[in-house]
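Chapter review. Work through the record for Transporter AcrB/AcrD/AcrF family protein before attempting the end-of-chapter questions.
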Amino acid sequence: MKSIVNFVLRNKLAIWIMTIIIASAGIYSGVKMKMETLPDISVPIISVATTYPGATPEQVANDVSIPIENAVESLKSVKTVTSTSYQNMSSLQIEYKYGIDMKVAQDNVKEVIEKITFPDTVDKPIIDRVSINAFPVIALSVSNDKQSIAELTDTVENNIVTDIQGIDGVGSAAASGQQIDKVKLTYDEAKLKSYGLTEEAIAQIIQATDLKMPLGLFNFEKSQESVAVDGKATTVKELENLLIPLTITDPAQAAAAAAAGVPASIKLKDVATIEKVGVVESVSRTNGKEAIAIQVVKGQDANTVDVVNAVKDKLKTYEDRYDVTIDTTLDQGQPIEASVKTMFDKALFGALFAVLIILLFLRNFRSTIISIVSIPMSLLMGIIVLKQMDITLNMMTLGAMTVAIGRVIDDSIVVVENIYRRMHLPDEKLKGKALIREATLEMFRPIVSSTLVTVAVFVPLGLVGGMVGEIFLPFALTVAFALIGSLIIAVTIVPVLSHSLFKKQINNPTKVIKKQTEEHGKMAVGYTRILKWVLNHKWITSMATLIVLIGSLCLTPLVGFSFMPDDEQKLMYVTYTPKAGQTEKDIAKDVEKVEQLFMERKDVKMTQLSTGGANPMMGGSGNGSLMYVTFDSDTKNFEAVKEKVMNKIMGLKQAGEWKSQDFSMTSNSELSYSVYGNSEKDLKATVKKNRSDHV
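Structure tokens for Transporter AcrB/AcrD/AcrF family protein:
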């Protein structure tokens, strides 16, 4: 250690250059760091979604859900398997233990599901890992009262969505509520009968022609190319001219048909009228008006704030260019920016008060300057390491920096105070660099032990298993890196600054001693009296301390517990799962009633409704509904407001099920539990009894 301090004092210019480099690299890293609300969390859950058209929930459970459950529950490291069977769809969630390779787990699930034999009408299961990145970071609503839904669909799909997908960091952009072109076939029953054909037979022929088959490599004039035959019809005309073979199994009838000039095949247009029609498969409304919704999902490594801001920067251009109105119905970037700004402001205020208190106690401007240098430099050193580890700037890392501010300055204060003390000792024989070196080395062991103890307190927070460990690991690492940085600064930059700012005093200590005739102030005298009384009344002091400790523990239940603080964003996610067999007309009526209920509230700013189609935030059949409901930012007691609204919705007693979804990681007052049994009849009786006990 002595050689390091000697090197520092002999090469002050090198230390200044190093300081500038670290400061510049820290500022650059901080600007380039991703901003998120919480640390990146890997959820050990794999989802399996399977569509079974026309099936009841019971059929879905028996033919799809249960076979998949039986296949995956024996896989290695599987913790729980949860399945939900809806009309037309099965949804499974496979939860694993923390710490396993989820890519390998996903491959294992695919392998065992491929061995299952499903009914012919069951679509191929979609297997994917559950990720926070799968949820939209921004949702838009595009409307135009002057355009038809077909014209608006063309504008959105061919211009806006395509352009958004090209923005750096955007993973996907999907529209709902748009018109989809389909082909409608109207058969001539008489002609079908005359040719011995059926609608089912023609449907099978059309499906069979929708096939792409490679023929192999062929030599052309200048190159060798792969040739494939694609039977897919891409236009109405191609579909009209599709040849339908006429198969007559009876030899006598076949000979008679050939003699009569009956062709071996006919065109599809000979037995059916084909027309292209526009169909709106999903409904999207904003504040009760028809619109097309766009949901943007960021890429895996993209920054939420950057992606959201990039999309928002394009909105004004879209409105002017395409003459449409675009409303932002969901914005995940704004609360992140607000949280980061709040934490940053608190950190600045904390640093400012720390400086004032140090100045008050040291009562020396130069000593204060030397000490406070460790605050920004320690944090910047920590930020450099965090950026290299790809850790984001979030509530946990910023909170850790705020906590570290009060501690990173301690090492520098100890070193500076010891140098200052040695300068004023009457019998001090050393001066100049020798005094700085010995004063620094004298404090090296105490500050090292102090730093290591503090690091040892925080690091175990990141070693906790599960989701809690993943959240607190960045917190622990941030504190540890900042403290290690403060130790390095205390033995490098602080001695150099002390040698520069105290140059006259350390070279002429006798002059300093003559001027130093300081007496204890009133604060020191008062503290001396308190200290003497405490030392003379040890039992009373110990009992008072014990009473305060016990009293503090007794107050803990009144403070309350929560995994994370409440989210300040006044937003509700409400989903509707229709009852099995419920018609689209009845679903639309039920959803419209609830939509109207929200719109009549004065504290609601915007409602965005999506019915039908696929949505990552809504499970169940394709005819379910999802609402984003944005409340005024000054809505008080929001949790109580949400509960009151949901009680009103439940009071409507509709056929389907309404639920208020909580996709945040904040605390809530919801208690959920699972009931297991041998039959649905037993489960219903138990659930009914428990529900009546808790209402």
